[in-house]
């Protein structure tokens, strides 16, 4: 049976305030919908270190549950940041089908 992939839209930049608010929502999403999650980053233009930490924490939680995190539609700036930090290799990155 295929794993169910559900999506969350991140509709603002991932700074410390946003990460603080999103953390419980994303963890709840994993608990309620299973270990695989897709984050639509199409509206995110900036991610600070706390936002990057949120993505890594979410990936760790998903993997502990046997799942994964997919980052969809990242803006050029966000994709470049993922490349510079070396995090690009940890996530599945692409566009939504």
Globally, the shape reads: globular
Strand order of the largest sheet: 1-2-3-4
Give the strand tally: 4
Topology pattern, helix = H, strand = E? EHEHEHE
Helix % is 40-55%
Please give a handful of descriptors for the protein shown.
45% helix, 4 strands, globular, alpha/beta, single chain
Please characterize this protein's 3D structure.
The structure is a single chain. This protein is of the alpha/beta class and 97 residues long. It has three helices and four strands. Strands 1-2-3-4 form a four-stranded parallel sheet. Helix 1 packs parallel to helix 2 (49-64). The protein is globular and about 30 Å long. The protein starts with 5 loop residues before the first strand and ends with a strand. 22% of the residues are buried.
Provide a quick synopsis of the model.
This protein has 97 residues and is an alpha/beta fold. The protein has helices at 16-33, 49-64, 76-85, and strands at residues 6-9, 37-40, 69-72, 92-94.
Annotate the secondary structure layout.
Layout: E1 6-9, H1 16-33, E2 37-40, H2 49-64, E3 69-72, H3 76-85, E4 92-94
């Amino acid at each position: 049976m295929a794993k169910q992939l559900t999506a969350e839209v991140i509709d603002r930049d991932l700074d410390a305030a946003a990460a603080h608010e999103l953390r419980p929502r994303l963890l709840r999403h994993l608990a309620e919908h299973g270990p695989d999650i897709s984050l639509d980053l199409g509206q995110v233009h900036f991610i600070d270190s706390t936002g990057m930490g949120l993505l890594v924490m979410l990936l760790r939680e998903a993997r502990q549950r046997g799942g994964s995190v997919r980052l969809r539609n990242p803006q050029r700036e966000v994709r470049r940041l993922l490349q510079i930090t070396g995090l690009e290799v940890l996530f599945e990155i692409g566009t939504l089908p």
